[in-house]
Design a protein that fits this description.
It contains seven helices and 19 strands. By secondary structure, it is α+β, with helices and mostly antiparallel strands. Helix 1 crosses helix 4. The protein is globular and about 65 Å long.
Length: about 350
């Protein structure tokens, strides 16, 4: 049997700045109705522990690991944010200040959300603000086009902008606009996460299908991970969650398998969770009849893991074929250290 899932959570009045928590053995009698009772509003609060308050009516987060424009946009979206753009003087100041305090990482610039992806030369921010309404200051010899796909703008540390290729990799900043959304008992503003009292984890079923690796990134961006089954009880809980999404609500071809957090890492038929445990050690290894069968699709084998509607395990294709998927997160995964002091 794998290790028990860590569980810690608590109750906070909406006007409060602290919460009292419970920790340890999960018991229904210890658990408040966290999905019915919000922690607190975003008013006057931080968004999540990895975002910083900025004077742009919201929060910013610098992603240090360079990536392409499309991947940056997707990661910010998964975090409930948007790829930041210097929309006005306040945004420009906030973004360049964040860059200056991390200059070893950002000395070559950060990706912005200003792009001309849809039509060459027609630039706008991801919020839809046209370039003509954004106070862009071009770097010397810019805008200069050297090759195809140069349709994204890079923000340099001095506040200048340059045109880059969509395949170029740079750090980037995500922006979350301040709203009056409510932080739920799952420690997130995403109301689609629900606490499972039998387990102590929160789960979200994604019926907008993605390939396995994009699903992995999406769960990580939401502060969680693709679900890992540690017991028959947890398998039953995910089976019940799946049942809430009949076939007509799932927007892809394969509607009876939902991807979760295990795979054949080295393609040698050794199935491990994304945290590196064998299925047996994790606590659940009940395959459906005939699985894993590594059915081929062209030159693609089935090296990624899924759960069937029956609660049994199945193998699916990692790439090219999208599936529904289930994310799991701890209720405290996005909270601040000073919040955790009260748990």
């Amino acid at each position: 049997m794998g290790s028990r899932k860590a569980f810690s959570t608590g109750v906070v009045p909406i006007e409060g700045t602290f919460h009292l928590g419970v920790q340890g053995t999960v018991s229904a009698r210890h658990l408040p109705d966290l999905n019915a009772s919000p922690f607190f509003s975003t008013a006057g609060r931080q968004y999540r522990y990895d975002y910083s308050t900025a004077k742009v009516k919201g929060w910013l987060k610098l992603h240090y690991v360079p990536t392409t424009w499309h991947q940056a946009r997707m990661r910010c979206h998964a975090e409930g944010a948007v790829l930041a753009s210097p929309l006005n003087a306040s945004f420009l100041h906030a973004m360049t200040t964040m860059m200056s305090t991390n200059i070893s990482t950002t000395k070559c610039g950060v990706l912005s959300g200003i792009h001309a992806i849809f039509y060459e030369g027609v630039y706008s921010s991801l919020e839809g603000i046209p370039l003509s309404r954004i106070p862009v200051r071009w770097a010397p010899d810019e805008p200069h086009y050297n090759e195809d796909n140069e349709s994204c703008l890079l923000l340099l540390p001095n506040g200048d902008m340059a045109v880059i290729n969509t395949s170029d990799v740079y750090p980037y900043i995500c922006y979350k606009k301040k709203t009056k959304n409510v932080l739920t008992g799952c420690g997130t503003y995403d109301s689609n996460y629900h606490l499972e009292p039998r387990i102590g984890s929160c789960y979200k079923f994604h019926n907008t299908c993605l390939t396995w690796h994009k699903a992995y990134m999406t769960c990580a961006g939401e502060g969680g991970h693709l679900a890992i089954i540690n017991s028959a009880i947890e398998a039953e809980a995910l089976k019940e969650l799946y049942a809430k999404y009949p076939s007509n609500t799932i927007n892809c071809r394969y509607k009876d398998s939902a991807m979760i957090g295990f795979l054949d890492w080295t393609q040698d038929s050794v199935w491990l969770t994304i945290h590196g445990e064998t299925l047996q050690k994790a606590g659940y290894s009940s395959w459906s009849n005939g699985a894993p069968d590594n059915a081929t699709r062209g030159n693609l084998g089935q090296q990624c893991g899924a759960i069937l509607r029956t609660g049994l395990l199945n193998d699916v294709w990692c790439a090219a074929v999208p599936f529904a998927f289930i994310c799991e997160k701890s209720p405290d995964s996005l909270l601040f250290d000073n919040d955790l002091d009260y748990i």
